[in-house]
Amino acid sequence: MDIATIVGLFGAFGLIIFAMLDGGDLGAYTNIPGLMIVVGGSVMVVLLRSSLEEFLNAIKVAGKAFGKPLEKPDQLITQLVEFAAIARKDGMIALENQEIENKFMEKAVAMLVDGTEEDMIKKSLTRDIEIMKLRHKQGAAIFSSWGEVAPAMGMIGTLVGLIQMLGNMSDPKSIGPAMAVALLTTMYGAIVANCFCIPISQKLANQSEVESANCELILEGVLFIQKGGNPRILTDLLISFVAPKQRDQLVNA
Description:
This protein is mainly α. The chain folds into two domains: 1-30; 32-251, no CATH class. Helices cover 80% and strands 0% of the residues. It has helices at 3-22, 32-49, 52-66, 73-90, 103-113, 118-167, 172-226, 231-238, 244-251. Helix 2 (32-49) packs parallel to helix 7 (172-226). The longest helix has 55 residues, at 172-226. The chain is elongated.
């Protein structure tokens, strides 16, 4: 599980709730009509903007923001160097029983074991990378759209509350609830957008870039192994995928 996502999410909402409690009863910040306008209304608008399949896919993709962190490039390089040494010593078939957690690498190694030609490996894995990028882009776009719509729905709720208030100025008892809807919906929209939707969208976009780079690394490593390259120079070939501060440690390992 990604600790940064959990800490950031609960920390943001926790601080907001703490500030609310410091100012009085938490119930004063609860308004069901306002929540319906902002949360329910924004979800419906996002659904209107996309297909049902894209919307459901975005929910699945969002799990990446909460799941375990992606593998680090140096870990993948170390594993690929081990596979290259095994393949050169015992042949590709020796890779068949290796334990591989990364699904993309698992498919790539399986293609090596099956004796797949280089062009077919490159074409198949490149297509997988492109489709993955598209899927992640659509998922991030859904949350970005939600972050855009939520404040707008908050403004709609504000207008609804103001209309209710102005229409019942003769009844002092109705002014308070109407004003609550007007103010709280704006707050709800800002919280949903800035504390959830936009951060999730940005994190998904960032993780997509990292995962794509990891897949490119794996692809280059697998093609190197397929050609029977020397494992000793594989690290030098892939080291550009590693942050400069970690390169010395990887080379000297």
